[in-house]
Amino acid sequence: MTDFFAGIAPVRFDPTAPDDLSYRHYDPDRVVMGKRLEDHLRFSVAWWHSFAWPGGDPFGGQTFQRPWFDNTLDAARMKADAAFEMFDILGQPFFCFHDADIRPEGDSFAENTSNLNAMTDYIGTKMESSGTKLLWGTANLFSHRRYMAGAATNPDPDVFAFAAATVKTCIDATVKLGGQNYVLWGGREGYETLLNTDLARERQQAGRFLTMAVEYARKIGFEGTILIEPKPQEPTKHQYDYDVATVYGFLKDFGLENEVKVNIEQGHAILAGHSFEHELAMAASLGIFGSIDMNRNDYQSGWDTDQFPTNVPEIATAYYEVLRAGGFTTGGTNFDAKLRRQSLDPVDLIAGHVGAMDVCARGLIAAAAMLEDGALEAARTARYAGWDAKADLLVSDLATIAANVEKGGINPAPVSGRQERLENIVNRYV
């Protein structure tokens, strides 16, 4: 036990509460479309931003002072104690972690593995007395200086080997803790200049690396979902996992499209020049939708600020696509979000998650209402209704089509897309 969150009571659903530490919209037991809100949303806390991030930014260092900020096993255990205290306060069903978030950094791979195993055992005992489970685990293959030129795509084969060995231990830890997914996040899988880069070689390395991870996970009996998280631009200029479509092409290239799905982050979608709902709809259309990281970017800053979500209309249209895709199975809503560096108090960490959970609940409730209303889907169906009678066009040839157009005197008139009217339908609910 720690006293980090001392005096903060468990957060409850109370829409009339005068404070900002009560859920006004997130009632875990409220049934929406035949399922409890908790089971729809499957909220998760990100260990890295909540407990490992020191509050720095590109122009300044640490602002947070946490009692566990020390590179020892005792400090890592204290961090875990505080984490589960926060999970209990929030009533969170899941958490996520990188290996480097939960263990001290050692002087060798063997020491890293020993530290990870010790912390996996410790966290396992915490999970036994808590209702919080592991949504997914992953390996941090980007922070340490050894990964400055990437992990899977590194020009040094020893770095490739170190990274592969690390992923093996992290898959083991995820399985041991009952994780429902395993994520591969290529934080530095890209390049900064073509002057020293062999694109073909690096692509083959990345493909082999992912294939080995999938093969090992299945070999040891991992039945969860393996996920890739698309990430554009930051920190390298050209990331190989730029967006959902790019990842799908990569998976197809290496025959992994039926083995791996995507974990889509709102902030990353924006950096790729897309909307969140676009990336979700694209993943669903390609059959690779898995899970989401929920946050928001500052649209003026132009970089990945990882703020807690506050925009209900934006979240509603995102969850609309999640529901259209059938909802989450092993995936969920992970808050890959962090406090502002001026938000120093422990209660700020609680308040950030409370507000985000309320926003997501409002968004999902609105999305469910839109889907049950059916107006948007009816309009979509009507727009493509002509294809029901002319599906043969997709298997015909140009000469036949040209002859039929001339013979039938076809001269189509444009039809309104009704965008404003559809946007008005959305605004009824948000």
TrEMBL record:
The EC number(s) this enzyme carries: 5.3.1.5
Cofactor note: Binds 2 magnesium ions per subunit.
Catalytic activity field: alpha-D-xylose = alpha-D-xylulofuranose
Record keywords: Carbohydrate metabolism, Cytoplasm, Isomerase, Magnesium, Metal-binding, Xylose metabolism
Cofactor(s) listed in the protein's UniProt record: Mg(2+)
Oligomer and partners: Homotetramer.
Gene that specifies this protein: xylA
Organism, scientific name: Jannaschia pohangensis
Similarity comment: family membership: Belongs to the xylose isomerase family.
Principal location: cytoplasm
PROSITE patterns in the cross-refs: XYLOSE_ISOMERASE
The protein's name: Xylose isomerase
Residues where Mg(2+) 1 binds: E229, E265, D293, D336
Enzyme class, spelled out: isomerase
A biological-process GO annotation: D-xylose metabolic process
GO molecular function, one term: xylose isomerase activity
InterPro entries in the cross-refs: Xyl_isomerase-like_sf, Xyl_isomerase-like_TIM-brl, Xylose_isom_bac, Xylose_isomerase
